[in-house]
Amino acid sequence: MSDLPSALKSVFEQTMEEAGDPGPFEVLGRVGGGCINHATHVRSTKGDYFLKWNNDPLPGMFAAEVFGLKLLTDSQTVRIPAVVTVKDQAESAPAFLVLEWIPNRTTYSQTLLGEQLAVLHQTPGETRYGLEMDNYIGSSDQFNEWETDWVAFFQTRRLYPQMELAIGNGLMPAHRRKKLETLIEKLENWLGGVQRKPSLLHGDLWGGNVIAGSDGEPVLIDPAVYWGDREAEVAFTGMFGGFTDTFYKAYQHVYPLQAGYEDRFKIYNLYHLLNHLNLFGGGYAADVDATLAYFVG
Q1: For 290, which of 8, 112, 204, 214 is 20 to 30 Å away at the CA?
Q2: Residue 245's CB: how many other CB atoms inside 10 A?
């Protein structure tokens, strides 16, 4: 296991032994872990694993991911990688998470994903919006304190925090701030009057967070789970592409969207545009401004 940092190697082996696999382990090669973590494919005689680690993790980052993965798994609606073990940062050892290895094919069934997502969004179990814990959207804090009113939740847990973060980052000039404050203030005008109930959401469902299992079954990874309006999830699938008409038709067949969702989608994606503005800078400013101009002029 010479390809693993020495500070990780020993604690990984010990933790895996406690989880039931004493090794030995072979590192088969680095794989994509997103822009936040390191990741690699590890094999033992008992099986293959996906290992990702972070030398300077966000507080509770992997614990929050595990919480979300288990919630999605418990819904029994869509395939989620099984959690093998997780370890917080300790002294010089990085924090790490071990999942089952998914042999990633190039394509998955868009029809099946649309159907499964629609069923996920009908998972019973919660009457409020939010989650038992805060988590992360990318490397940004995502605040999930419970709220019974969805519009109030989206105002106070989604748009306001991103606006405040952008102010602190010097990315919210006066004209942008004024329009955003107006939109937040009047959010009921665009999101009100819709029949909705809390749905269990993956929370960060862009094309890069769906992989194909060995049988072409879609597998969801890297969640930012919470209970929210399902339209917020479906909206984000369209922000960067990767989902076909077949996906949307399958979703609508199982769980049709309400009329007028197109404009609401723009507001829901404003949360992600603001987050990308905060994470990656001014390249997203024009999209933020276009959305604000569409609604408040």
Answers
A1: 204
A2: 9
Question: Helices 261-280 and 285-296 meet at what angle, rounded to 10?
Answer: 150
Closest CA to 96 of 211, 15, 2, 203: 15
Would you say the pTM of this structure is higher than 0.90? yes
- For residue 110, report the phi and psi dihedrals to the nearest 5 degrees: -70, -35
pLDDT tens figures, 215-230: 889 999 999 999 999 9
Based on the domain organization, do 33 and 70 belong to the same domain? yes
Residues 142 and 268 in one domain: yes
Q: Considering only 85-94, 139-148, 185-194, which range has the smallest mean pLDDT?
A: 85-94
Of 139, 257, 258, 138, the C-alpha closest to 208 is 138
Q: State the catalytic residues.
A: 204
Three-state SS for 124?
Answer: coil
The predicted-structure confidence for 1-55, as pLDDT tens digits, reads as follows 557 888 899 999 999 999 999 999 999 988 876 678 999 999 999 999 999 999 9
Q: At 67, list the tokens.
A: 């919480």
Residue 72 has pLDDT above 70, yes or no: yes
What CA–CA distance (Å, rounded) separates 191 from 115? 25
17, burial (CB in 10 Å: exposed 0-12, middle 13-18, buried 19+)? exposed
Tokens encoding 286: 């024009």
> Residue 96, SS3?
strand
